[in-house]
Write a structure and sequence with these properties.
It holds the Pfam family FA_hydroxylase. By secondary structure, the protein is mostly helical. The protein folds into two domains: 32 residues, no CATH class; 251 residues, no CATH class. Helices cover 60% and strands 0% of the residues.
Length: 302
Amino acid sequence: MLPYETIAAAESTMGRNLTAAEALWFRYSARMPDYLLYCHNIFFLFVIFTLVPLPLALLEVRLPSVLAPYKLQPKVHLPTSSFFQCYKDVMRVFLLVVGPLQLFSYPSKKFVGIRTGLPLPSAGEVAAQLAVYFLIEDYGNYWIHRLLHGRWGYEKIHHVHHEFTAPIGFAAPYAHWAEVLILGIPSFVGPAIAPGHMITFWLWIILRQVEAIETHSGYDFPLSPTKYIPFYGGAEYHDYHHYVGGQSQSNFASVFTYCDYIYGTDKGYRYRKAQLAKIREQRGAGGENGEANGWNYNEKFE
């Protein structure tokens, strides 16, 4: 809730006119409690989990031939019931874990200094903070994910997420409730270290989940804008991790590839890429019957 009765009062305090974005923010949030603003996260997550994976899911079910050239595991075709069941399981964890966590974690967000007032941050400030959030979360997620591939962590918790050896967008948040809680920790570290505006926090939540859905999509589109992000892993990179499954000691990073490269946990992936490149060269792009359009040559796992 803003401490101004009118836009004129806000402008008088700030000593300048509000920008168009600030005026819009004033009209929306001036009388809204900060707690309610923070709880917008629940709505955003629900919309993202529901709508972002939907277009590809519909195409895969109704018109699979349209997406076939880009499918990373072309021999795997899930029935419609698998998509519905995955979404139902995600929504159950959302209602029982994610939603309540958002409702009760507001004091921590207030404590670290995430603000809701004026002025709004500049585009440069937002971009810099988001970059910090992604880098910090990626590093923390790498080590937690790697630990979850230990025997106890995998058998008790992480195996749930790996039920989809050929991931789909709806499966990005599909996991054991304990994993949802554990992996939520590095997502909060960045905003705690470099707290910003609530709008920046919203963007962080939205972009991180959209990124997770993209990397779990099961498709590698050559013109995707994410291919221009330095060190970005993407769908192909993470799809290999799911393809290898419980044996995987490769490609633990959630967003970027630098941790796997530094700590040597991308060797199996790079070996497989080199193998497939030779196969495609020998047989022609697409192989025989499209066999080389994905992770289908599995003589060796690393």
